[in-house]
Amino acid sequence: MHNGLRHILLTSLPVLLLAGQGWAQAFTAGSLVSDSTRRTERLLGWSVTRPKKAAILSAVLPGAGQIYNRKYWKLPLVYGAIGGAIIGEMHAQRLYKEYARGYEARMDGNPRTIDQGEHSGKELSDANVHTTLSSLRTSRDQWIGGIALAYTLNIVDALVDAHLYDFDVSNDLSLHWQPSVLQLPAAAPTPAIAFSFHLKSNR
Q1: Distance CA 4, CA 73 (A)
Q2: According to a count of CB atoms within 10 Å of the terminal CB, is the N or C end of the chain lower?
Q3: What is the C-alpha R_g of the chain?
Q4: What is the pLDDT of residues 167-186, one digit of tens each?
Q5: Collapsed DSSP state (helix, strand, coil) of residue 197
């Protein structure tokens, strides 16, 4: 796997895992999500729900939705993923431009033109410059995709957290387990452990 793509996945993975965990909790919770998470709020004079407001804030300014949801500890993850991808893209773009100028200098047919690029000028052949140029173009495009991915996950994470803002599993669900015997057709009884979820009544 290309080093640039690997770095994109590593920097975006924490945000992706957090967002995925939030979606899993949301689907599991179902109707248990408090109605207060859907309450109407004001944003620049508009009436919006809490999740919509969090998503809009994160879309306008990455990390703003996390601040709105009071998940301040996620800010280093958001800015690390987006910032790392931006730095990677800028580095790849700088090298790409250098190799593009170097390749043009080698191929313009003028023997007086010298490739003086810091990196491209050290290549031994035109073919090496062309190969590296193509690789850098791919790397640059991957970093651009990484920026878009990290930016999107920032919005998704804020949206999911807003849905779950007032949801507390510990107050609504309880897990019970007990030994049991599993009956299988044409087979001897098999020891097993049975798990069950129970809703706690709000009194």
Answers
A1: 26
A2: C
A3: 27
A4: 554 544 555 555 555 555 65
A5: strand
Q: Which class for 100: exposed (0-12), middle (13-18), buried (19 or more C-beta within 10 A)? A: middle
What's the whole-model pTM score? 0.62
pLDDT, one tens digit per residue, over 80-115 is 999 999 999 999 999 999 999 988 888 887 777 777
Asked if 66 and 55 count as a contact pair (C-beta separation under 8 A), the reply is no
Token pair in block for residue 92: 């790849």
Dist CA 66 CA 54 (whole Å):
8
Buried b (16+ CB within 10 A) or exposed e, 28-63: ebeeebeeebeeeeeeeeeeebbbbbbbbbbbeebb
DSSP-derived secondary structure letter, 121 = G
Residues 203 and 174: their CA atoms lie apart, in Å, by 15
- Distance, in Å, from the CA atom of 23 to the CA atom of 18, rounded to the nearest integer, reads 9
Tell me how long the chain is.
203
